């Protein structure tokens, strides 16, 4: 069953979708998927990453945040990365990229064995940072990518992996099936789906005691002072369901950035302070969102919730007592990683993860996510927000303006 994860975001790039695509094509291969006026731009060399999309590819804005300086410079040789951000990650941007979890902890893939859980030692594996995925199938509205790789986790366990990723545009019927209602009159949209599969290509089973990977999808969106992330969650006592939110990934998020009520939280997506939050599978309703009051664009994500007998991986940057008590939905607000250092973007992210993949040789785990951008008046978008988020647009704007609970 596909359950929705809502984001209400804004078109992010000055110059529009056409300008974004023309710029990217100067520096990397771009595959343009089309359906009617809508289009999605995909980059094979960036791991089949969806860079941006548009409701109207000729006159409309692009929805993905793209990092033009990094795209223009390209992948730096190893000898030129020392002391630069590219020593840790090449931030090309893009509204949905394929990653693998966990990030930190004794089973993390982003810290070498024996290193410390600090930014200086954090490095994104090349297979999901600088190395391309192979394009194996392409049609007008669909592209399929594959990649085989080996990754070693913090504990020294080697994983031989096969990755397959399919990106396709969605029509109106698929969109309405996902949101379980008709698209309101006066609302335009562009929607795409990615089908992501992880296979154990090795000769031994992946076991919890030596670490398990997961599929991790992250979207870059442009921040603004009027952007507020919204995640409804199951109400109930912590003794039964655990904390309402994990707000301590990079230090505790201050109250002016995070408002937590009985069954919903509001998190700023303004790109001014680095912080990350997460919602557990016990609390999650399969729904998250953000709203940029100026852009009047609603972005809806859905993903395939599935059984998780081995839990969800924990990406906290620490030695973990419970490495499989991680979150299923995350949101990140960018900012300076250390005093005096520039932000990575800035941008904000919304993320979903698959369960931990305890796969035998030849077995595969699948994680599907759909991204749908809707544009229209607030009156037209209001039913979508209320039906899926459980709060109205005015409620979201009020919290953004006051930084406190609704009255």
What attributes characterize this protein structure?
single chain, 407 residues, 7-stranded antiparallel β-sheet, 7 helices, 19 strands, 13% helix
Describe the structure.
The protein has 407 residues and is an alpha+beta fold. It is 13% helix and 32% strand. The protein contains seven helices and 19 strands. The strands form four sheets. It has a seven-stranded antiparallel β-sheet with strand order 1-16-19-9-8-7-6, covered by helices on one side. The longest helix is centred in the C-terminal third of the chain and has 12 residues, at 378-389.
User: What is the string of helix and strand elements?
Assistant: EHEEEHHEEEEHEEEHEEEEEEEEHH
How are the strands of the biggest sheet laid out side by side?
A: 1-16-19-9-8-7-6
How does the helix and strand content classify structurally?
A: alpha+beta
**Total count of helical runs of at least 4 residues:** 7
For the sheet with most strands, the description reads: 7 strands, antiparallel
How many E strands?
19
Give the low-pLDDT segments: 1-13
Q: What gross morphology would you assign?
A: globular
Strand content: 25-35%
**Rg, nearest Å:** 20 Å
Helix content: 10-25%
Could you tell me how far the N terminus lies from the C terminus, measured between alpha carbons in angstroms? 36 Å
Summarize the structure.
This protein has helices at 16-25, 68-73, 78-81, 172-179, 238-241, 378-389, 393-402, and strands at residues 2-7, 31-35, 38-43, 49-54, 97-101, 134-138, 142-152, 158-169, 188-200, 214-221, 227-232, 258-260, 264-268, 275-279, 289-292, 297-304, 329-333, 348-353, 364-375.
